[in-house]
Amino acid sequence: MTLPFDTSLALKLLPLYLLVAIGFALGRFGEVRGQDLGRLALFVLSPAVVFKGFVTADLSGALLALPFAVFGLCSAVALLAARLTGRLWKDGRERIAAFTAGTGNTGFFGIPACLALVGPDALPIVVMVSFGATAYENSVGFYTVARAEASVTGAILRVLKYPGLHACWLGALLNLSGTKVPPAVMQGVDILSGAFVPVGMMIVGLGLAQLRSLRLDLGFTAFTLAVKFAVWPALALAFIGLDRAWLHIFGRIGHQVLLIESLVPLAAVTVVHATLRGIHPDRAAIAVAASTLFALAWLPIVFSRFG
After folding, report:
1. pLDDT at residue 232, as a whole number
2. Which residue did the predictor score with more confidence, 172 or 150?
3. Burial of residue 20, with CB atoms counted within 10 A of its CB: 0-12 exposed, 13-18 middle, 19 or more buried
4. How far apart are CA 76 and CA 86, in angstroms?
C-alpha cells in the first residue's frame, strides 16, 4: 500500500462524500424524501447511463464477451445468495442482501481506482466490466428485489416494464448495427446520465438521514461485506490463475482490472432499491458507507499483494 494511491483515490472520492453529506442534510433538515429521488434515479437516470454506455462502447473482439461473462457471474452469485439469505431474514433484507451480493460500485468507484492504479489503458476493460454489472442490476438484480412483491410471472412483467432493461438491448442494438443516434437525443441522454452520480450519492445520504441512532445491523452488514470483499476477490483470483495457466484471454492489465473491480464497495443503487421499497434504507446506507470506507484500505492491500 502506497501513500500516493491512497491520497489520489481519497481525493477522487471526496466529491462523492460531499454529495452524501448534502443528501444527509436535505433528509434531516429539508424533509426531502428518498423515495422520490429513488424513483427518479431508478427509472430515468439509470436507464440513461445504461443506454449511453452501450451505444458508445467498442463492442468488438474479446471485449464483446466480457460484459456477458460478468453479467452471468453476477446473476449466478445473486441467485445463490438469495437461497441463503432467504433462510436468514424474512423482512425484505434477504432481497436487498441477495441483490447487492451480485454487484458492486464498479463505475463510480471502480473506474477511478483502475485509472489511478493501472492507467488509461485500463479504461476499455473496466468500462465493459461495469456494463456487465449494470446489465445485471437492470435485469436479474431488479427481479431479485421485486420477486417477493409479486408472483414469478408478475415479477418478470415488472422487469420487462423496467426502462433500464430496454436501455441495455436498445443501446447494444444501435451500436452493433452502426445506427447513429441523433445529436439532440444524445445531448438529452448526456444531461440525464450526468445527473445519476450526484443523485445516487445523495440518496445514500438521505438513507443515513433516517437514522436516529447509529445502530449497526451486524448480521446484514457482515454478510454483505463478506460476499463483497472475500467471495468476489476469491472468484477473481481463481479466474486470473486459470487464465494465466491455460486460457490466455487477458494480459496483465486485464487481470489487474478484474482484481480491482472485485474489490470495489457495495453498489450505491442498493440504497435506491431499499429506499424505494421501504426495506430498511438506513441499514442499507450504513452497509454501503461502511463498505466504501473499508474498500479504501482493503483494495490497496490486496492489490499490492496479488496485482
Report:
1. 97
2. 172
3. buried
4. 16
